[in-house]
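> forwarded from #structure-qc
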């Protein structure tokens, strides 16, 4: 009877240990500075330093209702410490927040900067735990929840 108890307890402990997830924390996924990436003729941007590549045609359609006018445009991308990607560009009115998913990125939030004025020379900065957007003399502070100020 004692051996049976030992075997059952061992099985329960091994099963419990095998089913638990390994979590490495705390983690900081932030990029120290923004990346300015030029869209190629196929609609892709890529960054070799972070082994980063994605198709942005749908983003241009979401912003401009046109998925053909992207070649040669620049996108500004930065990642915060929680792993959110902030993407915007010249003539955008929004900043898009994405999270990585299997084989892609999922739009988590669209932060409207202005309903009427487009960005003219946007720059993204890390202001942990927030992201700062500077456009000329205008400054905005945002995080994954939206505009902070």
């Amino acid at each position: 009877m004692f051996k049976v108890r030992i075997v059952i307890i061992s099985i329960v402990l091994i099963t419990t240990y095998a089913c638990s997830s390994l979590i490495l924390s705390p983690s900081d996924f932030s990029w120290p500075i923004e990346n300015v990436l030029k869209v190629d003729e196929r609609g892709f941007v890529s960054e070799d330093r972070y082994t980063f590549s994605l198709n942005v045609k749908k983003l241009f359609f979401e912003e401009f209702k046109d998925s053909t006018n992207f070649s040669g445009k620049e996108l500004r991308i930065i990642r915060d410490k929680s792993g959110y990607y902030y993407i915007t560009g010249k003539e955008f009115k929004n900043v898009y927040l994405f999270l990585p998913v299997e084989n892609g990125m999922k739009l988590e939030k669209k932060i409207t900067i202005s309903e009427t004025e487009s960005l003219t020379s946007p720059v993204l900065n890390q202001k942990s735990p927030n992201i700062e957007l500077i456009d000329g003399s205008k400054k905005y502070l945002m995080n994954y929840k939206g505009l902070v100020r």
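QC bot note: Residues 26 and 122 are 31 Å apart (CA to CA). The chain has one domain: 28-147.
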